[in-house]
Design brief:
It is a single chain. The protein is built from 4 helices and 5 strands, in the order E-H-E-H-H-E-H-E-E. With about 120 residues, the chain is an alpha+beta fold. It has a single domain (about 1-115), classed as GTP Cyclohydrolase I, domain 2, CATH 3.30.1130.10. It has a 5-stranded mixed beta sheet. Strand 4 and strand 5 (about 105-115) form a beta hairpin. Helix 3 (about 55-65) runs antiparallel to helix 4 (about 70-85). The longest helix has 15 residues, at about 70-85. The chain is elongated.
Length: about 120
């Protein structure tokens, strides 16, 4: 199986439990890996055979920017579900990090993997 990876997608959303986190936008960084079969596209060099990462990423951007979760776990699950259900990804790995969430740490992150049902 092949992977399409999108790394370092930097977005802002409502995420967290403290009053200021519920009021102000916070930075999140998203990495996604989607298992796909790239061979058909490679053999015919045709965009119609490619898993459409551009459209999927635009969908993730819209989802995240409109979201209002308390936990990065819930946000990661929503992203994975979006990729699986709306963009027919067979298997995804999603990493959501929140820079500056902990003092003395670059970020706090969660990584989840989900497969199509």
């Amino acid at each position: 199986m092949d992977l399409i990876k999108i790394n370092g997608l930097r977005l802002r959303c409502i995420i967290g439990v403290r009053d200021e986190e519920r009021r102000d936008l916070s930075d999140v960084v998203i990495d996604m890996a989607v298992q796909t079969e790239a061979r058909p596209a490679a053999l015919v060099d045709d965009i119609a055979e490619v898993w459409n990462y551009r459209t999927a990423t635009k969908g993730v951007i819209a989802l995240v920017q409109q979201s209002s979760y308390q936990t990065i776990e819930a946000l990661a699950e929503a992203i994975a579900t979006h990729l699986l259900d709306d963009h027919h990804a067979p298997h995804v790995k999603v990493r959501v990090s929140k820079p500056g969430a902990l003092r003395f740490a670059d970020d706090v992150a969660v990584v989840i993997e989900r497969s199509a049902r």
